[in-house]
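Appendix B. One record, verbatim.
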Amino acid sequence: MVAQGAADLAAMMLSPYEHFEDPMAVAQSENLTKEEKLSVLKSMEADARELEVAAEENMGGGEQHSLAAVRKAMRAVDPEAAARSAQVQTSKAT
């Protein structure tokens, strides 16, 4: 698997949906390393969390937040990393 350049990865992390149709497309990418996939998915996860908060505060613009889809893709890439991410979020919520 060929690692992406730092600039390419930064662009993917900044605007992941400009580069990938959905989180599973990241997980299935043959052009990213496991670590790069997780970095992009974590960016998608942060975006999804922000959209959830906005929706809870009635500030959403009708965007689809896909936290479940992101977590599914993370599990496909690395089940342990996905579990850690979910665990961190749960501990922040309490």
